[in-house]
Amino acid sequence: MSFDIIPAIDLRDGHVVRLRQGDYAQQTSYRADPLRLARDYAAAGAAWLHVVDLDGARSGTAANFRLIDALAGGALQIQAGGGVRSEDDLRRLFDAGVSRVVLGSVAVREPELVERWLADYGAARLCIALDTRAENGVWRLPSDGWTRSEAPILEDLAPRYAAAGAVHVLCTDIHRDGMLAGPNLALYAHLRGLAPGLAIQASGGVRDVADIRAVRELGLAGVVLGRSLLDGHLDLAAALAC
User: Which of 16, 23, 137, 231 is the most exposed place for a label (fewest CB within 10 A)?
Assistant: First the structure.
């Protein structure tokens, strides 16, 4: 299995930002122009770019579509999500040139609908976001930009989507997101045990090349890098070289 190192751009009000543990009140803003940043990542050797519309994720209405549309016209393959709640939202991103659409809240709340999309559009074009937070020993799956609690848990949905033919799954440990505390390797090992056939992308906490190697050695399909690149803790070219 190939291993993808995927830089991330999170958008809020058209700007590149990072949140701490998904908290919209704990935001770091960056002066980087999103299109310029994407070109820099492509020049460093990246093949994919992960883009999140944070406004859309919380409100359910895409707010940064023009930027995503522009990014999809660049050199990188785009994996994008945030605010996808309907088939119209899904088609709009595909029509813009997005290669793979990330489904978060809708995947947690409406698995039957997403299972139909997997059959209709093909598993290769969809990524199921099972972003999770440990609560009293249970891996909960919050929605709406991680602001709303939901009933399903990781142990329910991961095997279900694997059985439905899903391929790509993005899993973020919310407590580690934006914290540079290292990835939760135990979580990813647990997820692999729940659904061995899924191509899992790790997200949250990655600090350095050693963390990337540790994720790869678990047999995961890729890793998403956000704050570590933006803050200069990790060089993308060096990450790709490992």
Answer: 137
Q: For the whole prediction, is pTM greater than 0.70?
A: yes
Whether residue 35 is predicted with pLDDT greater than 80 in this model: the reply is: yes
Give the chain's length. 242
Quick one: which of 168, 60, 167, 65 has its CA closest to 110?
60
Of residues 4, 10, 53, 173, which has the active-site annotation?
10
Say which of 4, 89, 131, 144 is annotated catalytic: 131
4-241: which CATH architecture? Answer: Alpha-Beta Barrel (3.20)
The 10s digit of each residue's pLDDT in 111-170 is: 999 999 999 999 999 999 999 999 998 999 999 998 998 989 999 999 999 999 999 999
Domain ranges for the chain, please list them. Answer: 4-241
pLDDT digits (tens, 9 = 90+) for 81-112: 999 999 999 999 999 999 999 999 999 999 99
Going by C-alpha positions, the residue among 58, 3, 66 that lies closest to residue 25 is 58
